[in-house]
Write a structure and sequence with these properties.
With 768 residues, the chain is α/β, with parallel strands linked by helices. It is built from 22 helices and 31 strands.
Length: 768
């Protein structure tokens, strides 16, 4: 009889926290192999003893039959000597080594099998709000340290009962080595508090709270990554109360819908969108409205937006909250502008907003908000664009095709802040952290800086931050980094670099288009409509974009588009008396003062966002900004009153300028055309369509000119303005029709959340 062979196998990648060891165990038993499998800080280590051909087949089957949530980055195996006469195959406890691994799964939505258990009256997990298995449940929000074992999570606060312990050890159970396993006897539990945070003792808590939601009450509910505010989406008075209490005047609310059938009643949905909604990540998805939920003139849920932000239940507690309502508003529990509440000591922040509080006693270690995506159907391709990346996606690893020679931490931007880590060929991005001007968001940002390094056991060689001298992220970085190991990357260069890194375009020369609201320029001016040429390897050189206009009002104008309108249209050479007629809140004296400020200004902006603000004000948005990008969003929404967004006609004649050697689109000419159409009483939606089309057409002409000059065939797009579906669609349509290979952020949002990634890439691979 031939002597048994022995092989050691090391698997690196996303292979922990998803039932990988139980999978290996059952596969080894199937092949009648002996040995062990264990988690280590290198990855998953396997030692198998048995017949040579069976071991070979076993290794191939690992690659083919691996758990769907796993990503095998590398699989190394070698024949070794082993004198241990194993009697069987075992899962052994995880090992603590000095080697460092940085692969952790995000929080995963409830799987179909657990949904069946939840609704099965014969199941021991019937209607249990913390039901989970190896294929679903919390990960990132509850892990304290690596590796991912129960002892290293907040589930260690709960001792398994005898039945759960049996399931945990049962190789035939779906909960075999499920680190989050628990039941109503041994696991976390919910309790109910009133508006004053006093506990209520109610026999049937779930029936009580469902009745209160139906009545129109607002409930703060602790979920996987923090608290949500939950209320009946069909109760007009409840929605009005929420907007008033939350200080959220117009920004759309997210909706939790009971099932796909309910979604199809109110939204158009295709197979790609359906698949994404039902995926383990279970994000909020922006879907085109089919009909409004509320039968009234004004849509209190999402205003003039053609979309609803919709998600399916992703945790068992959602099913418990939907016995009387098939649609709930489910929005982050916070005051607008602040991060989501995730700890009980923060509940005072929600007093005066919520009528009741549903809390549980499992600790949440880091807040994780819901991810928001939009499926964009472009000519010849489908893109999944992030608006916010968090639960279900962060901190998923991006594996690169080239190694960096130093460990880098990218500290991101002050708006839509994130933090990214780059070690060798592995990139990790944090969850969305908020806007740092808010104190609570800044505190969350500083915690995340420490938390990421602790949980991933990461020590940066260098820090990278934004060039803006007044950014809090920059001052924080300078306070933490050692002298000499801080690098500064201009905001829009980081935008372009993020796309290059995501696509593994290290040496390719590209033309990069960065369109957004604000970024501190290398010349001290405000950038935001930029075209670059270069690569990650060499440099990114600013070649053109949108022309400069004086912008003297700073952050006040960002909140008040009336000021931007005044500044921009005065410079466009439009009749002054006509401008005065369109200003809502300015008297003659104030007008004269502000005109003088504009005339004498030395601060200039090439900002796409401010250009949109000025035009949006003229075409009817005469309010203070209540959330970032609101005026631009309303300007885009005008298009969809007359078009599905694929129209592209009646483009204004483009003119171009040479500014400091750069070719720029003359925005003054476009503004004059817009104002003339407005005075001539052209339909406002038609004007918006012409304005959008002219902007796209003009920038694409500059790109074509430079592409011919430099022989470039790749174009990358980034910046928050590309969350505008019209811009996204037509930039791709025009450029791809010209033979360009076009890319945009897909691992991260194209808004400022991607800045931390670009900072890492620009410093890691730049040879200058």
């Amino acid at each position: 009889m031939e002597k048994d062979s022995c092989y050691k196998i090391l698997i690196d990648g996303i292979v922990q926290g998803i039932g990988f060891r139980p999978f290996i165990y059952n596969l080894a038993v199937e092949y009648k192999l002996k040995g062990y499998v264990k988690n280590t800080l290198k990855g998953v280590e396997i030692l198998v003893k048995g017949e040579e051909d069976k071991i070979r087949a076993f290794i191939e089957d690992i690659k083919i039959r691996k758990p769907s949530l796993s990503v095998i980055r590398t699989l190394h195996y070698e024949k070794v000597f082993c004198d241990n006469n194993f009697e069987a195959f075992h899962i052994v406890p995880s090992e603590s080594l000095n080697e460092k691994s940085i692969f952790i799964l995000p929080d995963i939505g409830i799987c179909d099998n657990c949904i069946e258990d939840f609704h099965n009256i014969k199941s021991p997990f019937y209607k249990y709000p913390f039901l989970t298995c190896t294929n679903c449940g919390p990960r990132y929000s509850i892990i304290e340290r690596y590796p991912y074992d129960r002892i290293n999570t907040t589930m260690n606060d709960f001792i398994m009962c005898e039945r759960c312990d049996r399931d945990y050890k049962d190789i035939h159970s779906r909960r075999f080595h499920a680190e989050t396993i628990s039941c109503s006897k041994c696991g976390p539990a919910y309790s109910l508090l009133d508006e004053n945070l006093n506990e209520l003792k109610i026999e049937d808590m779930w029936s009580f709270i469902n009745h209160k939601i139906k009545e129109g009450k607002i409930v703060a509910v602790k979920g996987i990554g923090g608290y949500h505010l939950v209320l009946d989406a069909k109760n007009i008075e409840a929605i009005k109360a929420l907007r008033k209490r939350k200080k959220r005047d117009r920004k759309p609310f997210a909706l939790l819908m009971k099932d796909i059938e309910t979604i199809q009643k109110y939204c158009y949905i295709n197979e790609v969108e359906k698949s994404l909604l039902e995926s383990p990540s279970k994000p909020i998805l922006l879907l085109r409205k089919k009909k409004t939920i509320l039968e009234q003139e004004e849509d209190l849920i999402s205003g003039n937006s053609p979309y609803y932000g919709v998600m399916l239940p992703y945790t068992p507690v959602h099913f418990l909250l939907m016995t009387e309502c098939d649609i709930l508003i489910c929005t982050s529990a916070n005051v607008s502008g602040e991060p989501i509440v995730f700890r009980e000591e923060e509940l005072d922040r929600l007093r005066g907003i919520a009528d009741y509080f549903l809390i549980h006693n499992r600790r949440v270690l880091r807040f994780v908000e819901d991810s928001v995506l939009k499926v964009s159907q472009l000519p010849g391709r489908t893109l999944k664009i992030f608006y916010r990346k968090s639960r279900g996606y962060a901190p998923l690893t991006l594996f690169l095709s080239k190694k960096a020679n130093k460990s880098i931490i990218g500290m991101g931007s002050d708006l839509k802040s994130t933090i990214s880590l780059l070690k060798e060929d592995v990139l990790i991005q944090s969850q969305y952290l908020g806007d740092l001007a808010d104190y609570e968001s800044y505190e969350a940002y500083t915690r995340c800086h420490n938390d990421l390094q602790d949980i991933f056991m990461f020590t940066p060689d260098v820090y990278v931050c934004d060039l803006h001298p007044a950014y809090l992220s920059r001052s924080f970085t300078e306070s933490k980094a050692k002298k000499g190991n801080v690098y500064y990357v201009q905001h829009h260069k980081a935008h372009i670099a993020s796309v290059l890194l995501e696509n593994n375009w290290f040496e390719d020369n590209v033309l990069g288009v960065a369109l957004d609201g604000t970024g501190y320029g290398e010349d001290g001016q405000i950038w935001g409509g930029e075209i670059f040429f270069g690569s990650l390897k060499k440099e990114l050189k600013r070649l053109g974009g949108i022309s400069y206009l004086k912008f003297p009002f700073g952050d006040k104008a960002v909140k008040d588009p009336e000021r931007t309108f005044l500044a921009y249209f005065l410079q466009a050479g439009v009749d002054i008396e006509s401008i005065k007629k369109e200003l809502v809140s300015i008297d003659e004296r104030s007008f004269s003062i502000m005109k003088n400020i504009v005339d004498r200004a030395t601060i200039y902006a090439s900002s796409t966002g401010r250009l949109f603000d000025a035009v949006s004000y003229l075409l009817g948005f005469r309010k203070k900004i209540s959330y970032e990008g609101e005026a631009a969003i309303e300007l885009e929404n005008l298009i969809y009153l007359i078009s599905d967004g694929t129209d592209f006609s009646n483009i204004y004649t483009s003119e171009f300028l040479i500014e400091d050697g750069r070719v720029t689109l003359d925005t003054r000419t476009i503004l004059r055309h817009v104002f003339r159409d407005f005075v001539d009483k052209v339909n406002l939606s038609e004007i918006s369509l012409r304005f959008h089309s002219s902007l796209v057409s003009g920038i694409c002409k500059i790109i074509e000119n430079y592409a011919y000059k430099f022989g470039v065939k790749k174009v990358v797009l980034s910046g928050g303005s590309f969350q505008n579906q019209f811009l996204l669609y037509h930039f791709f349509r025009i450029l791809e029709s010209k033979g360009f290979q076009v890319a945009i952020n897909e691992y991260s949002p194209p808004n400022d959340a991607c800045i931390s990634i670009g900072q890492c890439g620009y410093i890691a691979f730049n040879e200058n």
